[in-house]
Amino acid sequence: MDNQAIAEFILGWAQEARKLVQAGVDQDLGVKEKTGARDLVTVLDGELERFYRQKINQYFPHDRILGEEGQGDQAQSLKGAVWIIDPIDGTLNFVKQRAHYVTMLARYLDGVGQLGLIYGLDSGQSLLALAGEGVYLNGKALDLTKQKAMTESSLDQVLMSTEALPLDGDLGLYQLSKASLGLRIFGCAGLDVVHLALGRTGLYLNHLYPWDNAVALILADLCGFRVTDFKGQPLNLLDRQYVVMAYPKIHAQVLNYLKDRL
Hints:
Layout: H1 3-24, E1 32-36, E2 39-41, H2 43-59, E3 64-67, E4 81-89, H3 91-97, E5 102-109, E6 112-120, E7 126-130, E8 134-137, E9 140-141, H4 145-150, E10 159-162, H5 173-178, E11 182-184, H6 189-197, E12 203-208, H7 210-223, E13 226-229, E14 241-246, H8 248-258
Parallel strand pairs: 3-4, 10-11, 10-12
Antiparallel strand pairs: 1-2, 4-5, 5-6, 6-7, 7-8, 8-9, 12-14, 13-14
Helix pairs in contact: 1-2, 6-7
């Protein structure tokens, strides 16, 4: 099955997931803290992951899965076909605002991203990345002219975003943000990635898990931005890491800024 056909599957799954969320949004969400008051999980997070796992097992029975909520066997390597899924990204936004949250799915073959989807569970808007083919915004092929121009942008020409990293910490992110046009905090890694891929921002910094990075890495190859750790090394999609996502010139500026602060 080619990526276009698989994309039809996952778009349909995401649309069904949105209906599940809408049906349960006014019910008791069973909110629990994972690592603290800013890191929440709801019953719908688990329900959506189980839903995706059932669909993957039905249509791709030999594929393995790495999911945020661990609702089944977790892939321990990227060998073969592996799905990396985040059922609800931006759960704090979901709980407190009922807005600005997404679902993310990506499929990898032997460690190479094949396709990825970021889908707004509140808005129904989608950003689909097909490796070697293109990026599709709400089903329409994206003209990447703006992204090509962004490759020559410097930090003082763009907005940047971050979330979980302290601005007043040793990394000096407050000073870094002052060198940009301004700082934006979206509260949802998937939305940060969407804004970067669409050229609305030029830099995203955070401490991220594999399911936060999986779609971004596929988009990066298509849109021309870079995704590395804070030392400029490739990411390990099985670990949580400090991540720089930025267009090339900005990426180099940020790594140079960080090198004496790590």
